[in-house]
Amino acid sequence: MGANSYFHQLQGNLQISEFQKQIFAGMFAGMVAAFLKSPIELVRNRAQIYTKGNLSSKKILGDLFKYEGGAALLKGLIPNVIKDGIGFGTYFSSFYMMRKVFAAALPNDNSFWRNSTIFLSGSIAGMLAWVVAMPIDLAK
Predict the structure, then answer these.
(1) φ, ψ for residue 117 (rounded to 5)?
(2) Are 55 and 69 in contact (CB under 8 A)?
(3) Which of 34, 85, 112, 116 is the most exposed place for a label (fewest CB within 10 A)?
(4) Which of 71, 70, 76, 79 is nearest to 46 (CA)?
(5) pTM metric for this prediction
(6) Are 22 and 96 in contact (CB under 8 A)?
């Protein structure tokens, strides 16, 4: 992800651990992602509550601009920034730590074990990220 690599470059001069870099890079990437997906989630949520039959996303987006203005697309942005910042930070940092743990515990001499550690690390990181982000997602 571009935001992650950009943030890693910004952190280059800081005296922080690699684990902390993963947390901050993940949080930054999550906040950027929230800005991009928040309007999409707003349209999706509106589509779920509309009772006027079968409306398209285009119609919902047009109604948002017509009746509420362009700023309406920013509704729900803050909870998304918080949820995705914390969730991505948790994912990136736990993925990093799990890769280190599995690399030390399992042989890394062939592609099966190497791929297995990536798969297991990603699975555990994904679960941990949702354990942290789900309460925030429910509250929003």
Answers:
(1) -65, -35
(2) no
(3) 112
(4) 76
(5) 0.77
(6) yes
Mind giving me the DSSP string for 51-62?
Answer: -SSS--HHHHHH
Residues, the chain: 140
Distances (CA, A) of 70 to 63, 64, 94, 102, 117: 10, 7, 37, 48, 45
Residue 93 burial (CB < 10 Å; 0-12/13-18/19+)? buried
Q: Is the pLDDT of residue 134 over 80?
A: yes
| Cα-based distances in Å from 101 to 11, 70, 116, 119, 140 | 24, 47, 13, 13, 34
Beta-carbon contacts of 47 under 8 Å, excluding residues fewer than 6 positions away, are: 55, 57, 60
The answer to whether residues 30 and 88 touch, using CB atoms and an 8 Å cutoff, is yes
